[in-house]
Amino acid sequence: MESQDNPESRKRRARGRPRDWDDKTSQNTIKSLDRAMEVLEYISARQGMALSTIADEMGQSASTVYRVLVTLEGRDLVEFDAEEQLWHIGPRAFIIGSRFLRRTSLVERARPIMRKLMEATGETANLGMERDGKVLFVSQVETHANIRAFFPPGTLSEMHASGIGKALLAQLDSEILSQRLARGLQAFTPRTLVTQDALMADLALIRARGFAFDDEERNIGMRCIAAPVFGVTGEAVAGISVSGPTSRVTVDAVEGLSRPVMEAARALTQSIGGEPRQALS
């Protein structure tokens, strides 16, 4: 086994992080920067906020928040609407976020597959991956229909109330899954699965048939059908889905819509060199 303190190891460590890189105490954090990131994240989750509202809801003084906002504005990470007196997320934040997506070819390779899926089903196609225990939607191809689902890139959703989320949960080992479910299951509609027994039964069904079905579990009037995408290690790295109103995505239409969704997931898996793992018991 290679020593952690040999010259080569020290050289690799020095290139990207100092010796005490895993020390997260205050001596290795910049409080002002951390506060700025909190403000940025807070604004990004909302559509325009007044300075006083931001300060009150975050428990910070208005003067402190204002200095943070002006600093972020100088980098185009936030912008100020002088007429409405509201602060918004800025264009630079989108540019930085887009660079995150370029870390992998997943999004780029998914686009033509999602477009084909949208055309085959007539419904909006979505691509999502897990991020901090939630589903992060990273790409979407909208249907041409007037009534449609809308999950813009950057949207976060609870996994147990999402088609993609349930498709990913179904691929987890039982121990990891139990840890996730121990956090509790929030109800969003009367159809949300909020007990472990109900969700576990649904996940078993997902594994058996190969796709997940969100039956108005996040939003009343909307349904979603999703399937997992696998990476080179055989683990689920993303999910692909179609979503639409219950008037078109009827219960009777689910089986027919599931086939192109699963085909799209398989095509994307192959495109990134992935291979599905062995079925879980």
From TrEMBL:
* InterPro entries found in the cross-reference section: GAF-like_dom_sf, HTH_MetabolicPath_Reg, TransRegBhcR, Tscrpt_reg_IclR_C, Tscrpt_reg_IclR_N, WH-like_DNA-bd_sf, WH_DNA-bd_sf
User: Which segments carry the region annotation Disordered?
Assistant: 1-28
Which keywords annotate this record? DNA-binding, Transcription, Transcription regulation
Domain IclR-ED, residue spans = 92-274
- Is Transcription included in the keywords of this UniProt record? yes
In this entry, which stretches build a coiled coil? none
Q: GO molecular function, one example?
A: DNA binding
One of the GO biological process terms: negative regulation of DNA-templated transcription
The cross-references to PANTHER family, in alphabetical order and at most eight, read: HELIX-TURN-HELIX TRANSCRIPTIONAL REGULATOR, ICLR FAMILY (PTHR30136), HTH-TYPE TRANSCRIPTIONAL REPRESSOR ALLR (PTHR30136:SF24)
Q: What is this protein called?
A: IclR family transcriptional regulator
